[in-house]
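Query form — protein Pyruvate dehydrogenase E1 component alpha subunit

QUESTION: What is the three-dimensional structure of this chain?
INPUT:
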Amino acid sequence: MGVGQLPTTEFNDEELDDHPETRLDPASQPAGGAMIQLLDAQGNRREDPVFGPYVESLDPEALRAFYRDMAVVRRFDQEATALQRQGQLALWVPLTGQEAAQIGSGHALRTEDFVFPSYREHGVALSRGLDMSDLLRIFRGVTHGGWDPRETNFNIYTLVLAAQVLHAVGYAMGIQRDQASARAKGQTVEDAAVVAYYGDGASSEGDVHEAMVFASSYKAPVVFFCQNNHWAISVPSKVQTKVPLAHRAQGYGFPGVRVDGNDILAVHAVTQWALDRARKGEGPVLIEAFTYRLGAHTTADDPTKYRTSSEEDQWRAKDPLTRLETYLRAEGLADDDFFEDVRRQGQELADSVREAVQAMEGPSMEEAFAHVYSQAHPLVQEELRWYREYEAGFENAEGAGEG
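ANSWER: The structure tokens for Pyruvate dehydrogenase E1 component alpha subunit are given below.
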């Protein structure tokens, strides 16, 4: 086949003019593809023409609330880790170091927005109003979930890597259809968006690719929030990708933004911008929050086997809590009494979740059979009958022994 016989692209020039998102490049992204930062590691405020206005409206109480939630969830994380070490939890997934990425984005959400977390989004859970002791039920092993997602628009934790990203896009497409149906009937509806949280390791899963294809094709109101914490268990992010993960959005035809994930102001601004865009029907956005996991991947992991203490020290110097505290003190927005009160609130939460966890009792074996499927299943019922007979055998043996 000669050159003149090669098939042409499926899009002609006129069609491309109708779809400018197909020609996105890093230079066309906000700030030209550079990492967004509004508060540097020393706590100094920086200006940005696109995202700066999104934080100008934040009053002192909102900024103090940012710090309070970051500090409280870190104390919660420490307590959960201790509970696991003491045998009260089967496993725990620490978040320390990623508080700004989670609290900053969580506070940008509206009540009607819906969140699909992975298994480390404890800060987002706090911002959505979850009872934090409920968050520990799945790690205690007493339930498959722990809370009703419909009460807080915060879905159950997903332990299957990247599965929640597909679920998020499906839910976002459902929102589109519900809104279209309501408007066709002359009803007023609230604009809503969905956020899918996942990590740099999950970004290599096919589920993420498939989700982004559908999200782009249907302009689904979804924000893909990737917390690039540099380590997919023991695999460094440089093995996952050779370019910033935010640039991957270009291949799907929607914007990608890399933000300093330890800068809560920048995270909040970028997330609010992305959510506003999604709610207006302009399609998805990929946010890469460039942050770091200071602790282990889970309490079953030993990070000293694959990374250096000097690397950890380098990132501790970028601690999101220290950064915001420095700014609040320098601007006269918080004093020692405030920080002492935050410490007290964190300890009160730690005490309450410890008490709640120790009081949690696991389900009976019969209850476990009841939750395999949503409806009764003949094979499960058969296994339950076998189990009852098995248990009855012990009772009969004890009775025979007594005689």
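ADDITIONAL NOTE: Residues 364-398 form one domain.
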